[in-house]
Amino acid sequence: MQVIETLAEGLKREIKVVIPAKDMEVKMNERLADVKDKVRINGFRPGKVPVAHLKKVYGKSIMADLVNELVREQPTAILAERGEKSATQPEIAMTEDKDEAEQILAAQKDFEFTLSYEVLPPIELKSNKGIKITREVVDISDEEVNEQVLKVAESARSYESKKGKAANGDRITMDYVGKVGGVAFDGGTDQGAELVLGSGRFIPGFEDQLVGTKAGDEKTITVTFPADYPAKNLAGQEATFEVSVKDVAAPADIEINDELAKKLGLESADRLKEIVRGQIESQYGSMTRQKVKRQILDQLDEMYKFETPASLVDAEYNGIWNQVANDLAQSGKTFEDEDTTEEQAREEYKKLAERRVRLGLVLSEIGEKAGVEVSEDEMQRAIYEQLRQYPGQEKQILDFFRSQPGAAASIRAPIFEEKVIDHLLTEIDVTDKKVTKEELLADEEGEASEKGAKKAAPKKKAAAKAEAAEGEEAAAPKKKAAPKKKASEESAE
């Protein structure tokens, strides 16, 4: 077998592989000898079938198997012998000429195929000692904990039916039918719906028109859906809602005590405060971690400059751009609305894709040299978290992970990345800095812009992904179309 390098340009490689026809014939004859005593052909005793007849009957199928085996096995062996790692699966090209293919299967012509691939660039790791980051830390006050506990208590507040007119803060139970142009629309009908007036859960103007109603009232409400309403058939449309008020209930006083905690399934008010404090700590910890990671990645980005495989960059860019396109389609916005053009946005996201690929390769090399591994327990926990997000679809998700090797890799990659960041935190210079909640939660868009994200169209998930600072976000199931607010606001309910 001849292995000839026909292209070595940057990271691109092309290898021509030639297996002489006589070698293919030898392999075919060996296979025929193996099957000689096993096949049963009418007119011949077992083991007495002439080789020439066997070749006539089975020769082409055996040669086809040999070709498939060579194409499947040799690329890996060739790369290993050359000491190279391919960035993606090598592309394999063979003759498409039917006559040539027939000659190869008949062992009358050399079998040739070409491998085309990009190699992963060699990365010489540098010392991490020069990386310096500031870790912002927030002290959580009792006052903030109490504020959050009060919000929890408000969500569990009880209501008592009352006589008389509804006021802001009262809870109304109602049936309603929404119509546009006199025709009821999907998602615009409900029975026994509960709404606290003044909560802002429904579209503007809806709740205000219910103030002053009482149990037994029938009222027609007229509102206009926001222009950016997710349901395109309703956006900007005037609608009427025929509302039947079934009950008006006044809110009971809120008391933070053990009774409230027990209503929430906890043993005491102290335990409730403890849990709320833990949730706040987790939220701030996540923000701190995100900022720490951003600083680390930014400094690694400055430390390492090398050519990145175009195939990996293109794949990353396509994923980012598809998310941008989806965001624009869902929001109804254009690039001009974001103070940019499609051409500028594509250019910026290409740079971000290249940054993410380069940082991914650096982190992979650091993790490999440090012996970072993702355990099966960690994988199982991550998959379980995926299952929790989609109740009722557990079997389909498990089947997906079992049938798609790449699916498991998509779960393993972010875990591995976080463990590499943990490893780096043991080697770099970390200085803690006390900050206020407002400082911690401050928008980082200005800082991100300096790193290549300026005017790169809708930031949102795509930019976060490209910056390698956040993981993918699962798409939340959408609620009914009306008369609620847009989906982004509903998710906070």
Summarize the structure.
With 493 residues, the chain is an alpha+beta fold.
Textual characterization of the structure:
It is a single chain. With 493 residues, the chain is α+β, with helices and mostly antiparallel strands. It is built from 15 helices and 11 strands. Strands 6, 7, 8, 9 and 10 form a 5-stranded antiparallel β-sheet that branches. The radius of gyration is 33 Å and the shape is elongated.
Blueprint (SSEs and pairs):
Layout: E1 2-9, E2 12-19, H1 21-36, H2 51-82, E3 91-94, H3 98-105, E4 111-118, E5 132-137, H4 142-155, E6 159-161, E7 171-180, E8 183-196, E9 218-224, E10 238-251, H5 258-263, H6 269-303, H7 310-331, H8 342-370, H9 376-389, H10 394-403, H11 405-425, E11 429-434, H12 437-440, H13 445-453, H14 460-466, H15 487-490
Parallel strand pairs: 5-11
Antiparallel strand pairs: 1-2, 2-4, 3-4, 6-10, 7-8, 7-10, 9-10
Helix pairs in contact: 1-2, 4-6, 7-8, 7-14, 8-11, 9-11, 10-11
**Uncertain spans:** 445-493
| Biggest sheet descriptor | 5 strands, antiparallel
Which bin fits the share of residues in helices?
40-55%
Distinct helical segment count: 15
Would you tell me the overall average pLDDT? 84
Global geometry: elongated
Element string (H = helix, E = strand): EEHHEHEEHEEEEEHHHHHHHEHHHH
| End-to-end gap | 67 Å
What oligomeric arrangement do these chains adopt?
A: single chain
State which percent range the strand residues make up.
Answer: 15-25%
Indicate the structural class: alpha+beta
Rg for CA atoms: 33 Å
- Can you count the beta strands? 11
